[in-house]
From TrEMBL:
Pfam families listed in its UniProt record: Methyltransf_2 (PF00891)
The organism of origin for this protein: Phanerochaete carnosa (strain HHB-10118-sp) (White-rot fungus)
Highest taxon of the lineage: Eukaryota
Residue intervals passing through the bilayer: none
Keywords of the record: Methyltransferase, S-adenosyl-L-methionine, Transferase
Protein known as: O-methyltransferase C-terminal domain-containing protein
Amino acid sequence: MSALDTLVQIIANGVKDIQSKSAERGTSWPTPDTPLSPENEKLQSDFAASTAPVIAAACQLIATLKHPHTYLMDLTLSSNLSSSVCVAEAAYVPNILREAGTKGLHVNEIAAIRNVDAGKLGRNLRHLASRHIFEEVAPDIFRNNRISSSMCTGKLVQEMLDSPIDRWDGTDGFAALLSLNGDFNQWGNGWLADHLLDSATGHSQEPNEAAWQRAKGTKLTIFDWLELPEHALELRKVSIGMRATTSSDSDTVATRGFEWASLLSGSLVVDIGGGVGSLTMILAKVHKHLRYVVQDRHAVAKEGERLWKATMPGFVENGIVQLQGHDFFAEQPIKDAGVFIIRHVIHDWSDKYASKILSRLRDAAQPTTKLVVMDIIVDYMCRDSGGVADIPGATRSQAPEPLLPYADSATGRTYSLDICMMCAANCQERTLGHFVELLKSAGWKVERVCRFDYPLPQQLVCSPL
């Protein structure tokens, strides 16, 4: 059987299996036209492992069938899709169309609400509709579909117009996360090649010497830039957008992986660089026998305290949770932590700075303190495990040939995120071997890896060396 035949067979068998599993639940697999609902969202999340090889085979089939020039040009131009998504979010289009109903709305009426040029907005929406985001039901008349509906904040359009900075409050953060792409990822992407080939910046590990700074014409790090008064909207967006990276963790992070329930009553869990405490909110709801401190920059901690009092009253007021302003490059003031959590933080820093953060935690650790690193682990695009097979949980099952070694490489954002981090702050996602060496240099030993299905981050459970 040829590689092409194998790919087709993987797709056919996979689709049949997915349809069968859906039927067992008494439902059909949703299409872009299916209304968005918690039920079909859960169906797709539950079957993510089953769909991954099908999507991988479909992507590889496209790469096989397309002419190389066509394939490369299509990928190069796909960055414009990101721009169109940001336009739709900023113009409140998903919410406007939600209120318009199933008949849709003419682009002139959509554009008038935010005073956007109707012709230009329509071209962006048509671009998205060509990729199954929104639907053009008649010339220049658009309506939501299941995919575009996922960008809705659930708020009335008038509420959003009255207070744009509050439009993501009380949401799952997904719309804010999408909007962040325009603020950070796109700016740096266009300058990356020039930046890397410049001998003055190409080898830099400094967080204020990345392609994003070149594009913005600033020497500030992203974090310093966000705290300028004129960027209050962007800071709010970051704080809330991070919720979207934890929304799918709710049932999993508190019950699987590290054994939170086994900690003694009153044990202190410190969430390092925890933002407004999105992860701690999940843990605190389930493990009420523990105490928590969320550490981040002072401005973020202040915003976090506001959100906790609004969404989880009693936890801060009763001392169960403390939001603490702290610079994680400075000496760690907490010396009695049972567990340090550091989630999606190490990827924000180059090795030079990540090692400093981890070393500060090691200096403050007791012999029994655990460090739980929750982050993306980048897989090699070869079938070599990279020499870490002796660590429990290190290795993953591999997809059969001719697929790439890991089926979720086609469906995951891992490799794209790695380049985003490079553009934004000279930082990166890391392979497991890279993590092991980095942690060792800071005095930590990786005991085991707790594996989760994408898009959940992996957990590296570490102890002091």
